[in-house]
Design brief:
Elements lengths: L1 H6 L13 H13 L8 H8 L3 H10 L5 H12 L20 H7 L1 E7 L2 E6 L4 H11 L3 E5 L2 H32 L1
Parallel strand pairs: 2-3
Antiparallel strand pairs: 1-2
Helix pairs in contact: 2-3, 2-5, 3-4, 6-7
């Protein structure tokens, strides 16, 4: 009942519902059932997430103390996706196959190539967001659910590191050219 009340968009003085209210509610309920979130705090957590699956994930990890693996498992259960094995590292070479702006907008990272199909990990993985991400990328993906912190951490490693290396190499080349 608390989840339904939190998801009610017609209530006065309530913030407008985000695009993923149902997925937030289902993920929250999975966390409560798994003993990872106090049922009495579910409505508050849902309100904090404002129907945005990415924001809800960040909030329950930081404000409500839910573990990353536990969140990913609940998210996967809620949206019907397999859960990413975060003990494995993504293939950073695959960053070239995805536009960084699209990945950042839709909160996913390329993980592996599986027989020509790109496996991605995402934390904003409602069916609508997955479809929009695939349309923006011009490709179909094999999706795995994970937590927001895993996505942001790998994004920074995947794209920022490459950009920094390129900039460093260019500066060394300029220094060498100037010295000669």
């Amino acid at each position: 009942a608390a989840a339904a009340a939190a998801a009610d968009t017609d209530a006065p003085n309530e913030p407008p519902a985000g695009p993923s209210v149902e997925e937030c509610v289902a993920t929250g309920q999975a966390l409560v059932q798994a003993g990872q979130l106090d049922g009495a705090r579910l409505a508050e957590a849902l309100a904090d997430g404002a129907g945005d699956l990415w924001k809800f994930g960040e909030v329950v990890l930081t404000k409500y103390g839910v573990g990353r693996a536990e969140y990913a498992k609940a998210l996967g259960q809620a949206v019907g996706l397999p859960v990413a094995d975060t003990k494995s590292d993504p293939d950073k070479e695959l960053a070239e196959r995805v536009d960084e702006k699209v990945a950042r907008k839709f909160y996913f990272i390329p993980f592996a190539d599986q027989g020509g199909s790109l496996v991605v990990w995402g934390a904003d993985v409602s069916a609508a967001r997955r479809a929009a991400a695939e349309a923006a990328a011009g490709a179909k993906f094999e999706w795995y659910a994970t937590d927001p912190k895993t996505v942001t951490s790998h994004m920074e490693q995947m794209w920022r590191s490459d950009r920094d290396i390129g900039r460093l190499v260019a500066s060394f080349q300029e220094t060498d050219a100037a010295a000669q």
